[in-house]
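Exam revision sheet. Question 4 asks you to relate a sequence to its structure. Input first:
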Amino acid sequence: MVYFVGAGCGAKDLITVRGQRLLRQADVVIYAGSLVNPALLEETREGCEIYDSAKMTLDEVIAAMERAEAGGLTTVRLHTGDPSIYGAVREQMDRLSKRGISYEVCPGVSSFCGAAASLKAELTLPEVSQTVILTRMAGRTQTPKQESLKELAAHHATMAVFLSAGLLKELEQELRAAGYEPETPAAIVYKATWPDEKTIRCTVSTLSAAAEREGITKTAMILIGDVLGSREQNGYADSRLYAADFTTGFRKGRKET
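Answer key, structure tokens:
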């Protein structure tokens, strides 16, 4: 059996309880060495065979899984964040299915969640934004034409931009073209939840300057939107869920006197 496990966004203790259990039981671990916190490997048992996939091709990763399966061993494929977001897992799953190898997925804490936590931010606020767009700038990996950042940014929803720390000048241009005001709040979170994390609050017009000042060129989450501003700036409303006059399935609302 192969388990695709989300390692979480950085901190060793942000892996799920299930993910930690699977890691401790594994005979073979193939981890994304360029992104996963190596401290997680301390959870593996003695004798566990460990591969760093940063130094491997896809064929080599699959071959290692096949060898483990042939020997009746359990493999954990340890991916950064949550495997379902920019995890490059689908092609691995398809190859395992063709070979008749069973697999399961254990979710993890995505970096956009870790970044929001580090900023103490709520990404959805009543009357400000009720949508979060997860996307990336087009680079060596292109994006579908209808999903250009400019097209998505036109909604002015909260945006979490992955894998784009080296393209911030271009990102600024796309945001301006989509009608963003220069002073729209933004933030750069470098290595969210890691010991060397950096959080930089800035604006749409100062993203590239802020990253250059801090020497950030990779491994950063970019968050954009009015939800990052203060209440005085965005004027968000309190959630109706806890309003005294709001009836739910658990309590009856009452009129205020």
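Marking note for examiners. Residues 2-106 form a domain with the Cobalt-precorrin-4 Transmethylase; domain 1 fold (CATH 3.40.1010.10).
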